[in-house]
Design a protein that fits this description.
Elements lengths: L1 E5 L4 H12 L3 E5 L11 E2 L6 H11 L3 E4 L6 H6 L1 H21 L4 E5 L12 E2 L13 H20 L3 E6 L2 E2 L8 H10 L4 E4 L5 E2 L2 E2 H10 L8 E5 L5 E2 H11 L5 E4 L14 E2 L2 H7 L7 H11 L3 E2 L5 E2 L3
Helix pairs in contact: 1-7, 2-4, 4-5, 6-8
Family: Belongs to the NAD(P)-dependent epimerase/dehydratase family.
Pfam family, one: Epimerase
Protein name: NAD-dependent epimerase/dehydratase family protein
Length: about 325
């Protein structure tokens, strides 16, 4: 099977490309950051460049597409919503149009748990409707638009797609803006770890290896035109995460402050998100808990150090 991964030179995209390669499939990457040094063949291009994407699909003829290209940093979206919409929304339309024109059997789309902001608060499963009141953030709006485009192309062109709505992701190669990465880097430098707000916001941090497995399984026939919620196995507050990292480094300080650039971000505290559908239909269950994931990151970095500079081992 030929698998094209958009955004395949990025953090998550690289792990997805590797999972398909390990599964014995031929992989190609399209990413603005792609270079000849990347582990997989590809092309440096933006998904919003319609002509380039159409030509690439027509010449390479992928069987399946993993669509991860996009602006994933919510603060970057807030700072430049026009560019973000061009990449996230126009880019998705470009990929779907090229896929429909060349007979792609499935497009698996990187969604986001942020769409829960436009849903009822009490509980969230995949059948909950989007509220007319909207999302409250251009990043959320772009993620909703991606899902609606997938539905449109399924209805109008018969293009099968699968949307994966996932919680915050961490793991090897994660970019510095992710909270797990930020906490680990700050702790390695001796602290303090900065928690925005009061630290009570909950997250179910998902390890990138578990997410890559979900992308791989999402090509199954049962996943056609489905949406799946994906979360990590542990739900904890930002403050709890900060103190876990602090403890691993011998007790570096944790501080709290407000950050105006984070206005309108996902409010997740009261939501009970169901991942039953992914378990039952795809046989997918997250396997890497947050403690194991943090220890793996520390091991890869050579171990933690306490506030006195002594190495902290086996913690």
């Amino acid at each position: 099977m030929r698998c094209l991964v958009t955004g395949g030179s990025g953090f998550i995209g690289g792990h997805v490309a590797r999972r398909f390669h390990e599964g014995g499939h031929e992989v190609m990457v399209v990413d603005t950051r792609w270079t000849a040094d990347d582990p997989f063949p590809g092309q440096a291009a933006s998904v919003s460049d319609r002509d380039v994407i159409a030509e690439l699909f027509d010449s390479w003829r992928p069987d399946v597409v993993m669509h991860l290209a996009g602006v994933a940093d919510a603060r970057a979206v807030l700072a430049d919503p026009v560019t973000a919409m061009d990449i996230n929304v126009t880019g998705t339309a470009s990929v779907l149009a090229a896929a429909a024109a060349t007979g792609v059997s499935r497009v698996v789309i990187a969604g986001s748990c942020w769409v829960y902001n436009a849903m009822p608060v009490e509980a969230v499963d995949e059948d909950e409707p989007f509220l007319p009141s909207g999302a409250g953030h251009p990043y959320t709006t772009s993620m909703i638009a991606k899902e609606l485009l997938a539905r449109d192309f399924a209805r109008l062109h018969g293009l099968e797609s699968t949307v994966l709505r996932y919680s915050p992701v961490y793991g090897p190669g994660m970019w510095p803006g992710l909270v797990v990465s930020a906490f680990l880097r700050a702790a390695a430098a001796g602290g303090a770890l900065t928690v925005f707000g009061d630290g009570t916001e909950r997250r179910a941090f998902l390890h990138v290896h578990d997410l890559a497995e979900a992308f791989y399984r999402a090509t199954a026939p049962v996943g056609a035109n489905q949406v799946y919620n994906l979360e990590g196995p542990d739900i904890l507050t930002t403050a709890e995460l900060a103190h876990k990292v602090s403890d691993l480094f011998g007790g570096v300080p944790v501080e709290y402050r407000e950050e105006p650039t984070r206005r309108g971000e996902l409010v997740y505290s009261q939501r009970l998100v169901s991942t039953r559908k992914a378990r039952e239909q795809l046989g997918w269950t997250p396997r890497v808990g947050i403690d194991e994931g943090l220890r793996a990151e520390l091991a890869a970095a050579g171990g933690a150090r306490g506030t006195d500079g002594a190495k902290v081992a086996g913690r």
